[in-house]
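Below is the record:
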Amino acid sequence: MTGSIITEILLPLALAFIMFGMGLSLTRFDFLRLWQTPAPIITGFVGQIIALPLLALGICLAMKLSTPMAIGLMILAACPGGTTSNVVSHLAKANLALSVSLTAISSIVCVFTAPFVIQFAVGYFANGAPIDVSLSSISLGLLVITLLPIVFGMVVRGYYREWAIKVEVYFRRFALVFLLLMITGVVIQEHAIIVEAFNEVFIACLLLNFGAMFIGVVSAKLLKLTHKDGLTLAIEIGLQNSTMAMLICISLLQMPSYAVVAGVYSLTMYAGAGLLIAYASYTQKQHNSAQPN
């Protein structure tokens, strides 16, 4: 009974709380940017919604991942970028406005796209195993715990701007603490699976992380976007909302074993983020040294 209360009520409420905090950081101008600078936003959107799940599918097939690991990786790839990507964009001195806009747009669109990716993954990799997954229930669950809280947060921001700006930082801190608690819970509950499959999961997560960042950089180069926009796309496509992925696995699908991938990814993504920040710092120093005194 206690486990049911945690997975069906407390965990979804916590994610809704985090999404409300994200909404407090957003304004309508974050969405208007889609019309003002469409190229980088559309590129990031396509990379996030289409290229990333395809990359994850390729990794699953190439590495012949076990069913729980393959489905877990696909669920992770179906999730949008989280607030972590905005923090990393800020630290890397990337295009923060673009980062926030992409996070906002992908968080909303994934409510409608993620259920299809998840249903495909379960149907393809579970080999007919009796896993009760309903497209409508996943869509409704994501709508209630992600989209509605974001919209509500934006409405509150519109009426109480100063308060929203003041408290938004506390929601970010709660999101970090909640993620750490989620990882700890998954490690404790799925210890045997993690020990048995850590090597393949760790490599798969690194491949997804670095492959996604590579997609962002290459896409920016092909479209001749600015260096700053390319860095932002690498961050946004490369860093997934692992908290949402774990919540989908544990609360909506009732399959904690699927959450192992998201738990491991929560650790590996910081390696990619650190490299991006270091790369941004290096290129900035190179640019400054090239400037005439």
